[in-house]
Here is the input.
Amino acid sequence: MTRDPQFMTCQEFQEQMAELIGSGEDVNNHPHLRMCATCRALLADLQTIADAARELLPVEPPAEDLWQRIELAIQKEDSSLDPG
Ligand SMILES: [Zn+2]
Here is the structure.
């Protein structure tokens, strides 16, 4: 990109915002945010939602255990369907 990020539109910024947050960059210091209250508010909303989601979700989902339990449930289901 050859353009100064300060002159990007809100749409352009918002399209990149998730990527910027994901890359670990300090989005709060982004040149566009310094001059755009709309995107500052939007980012604050997103961070509030992200923080809330982190509190709701377990840090380490027990994926393997869950899959084993699903497999056991399927096996039970199979044997109960077996007429013999
Ligand atoms: Zn903006």
User: Anything to note?
Assistant: Residues 37-56 form the longest helix (20 residues). The pocket of zinc ion is lined by residues 10, 13, 32, 36, 38-39 (CB under 6 Å). The chain has four helices and no strands. Residues 5-81 form one domain.
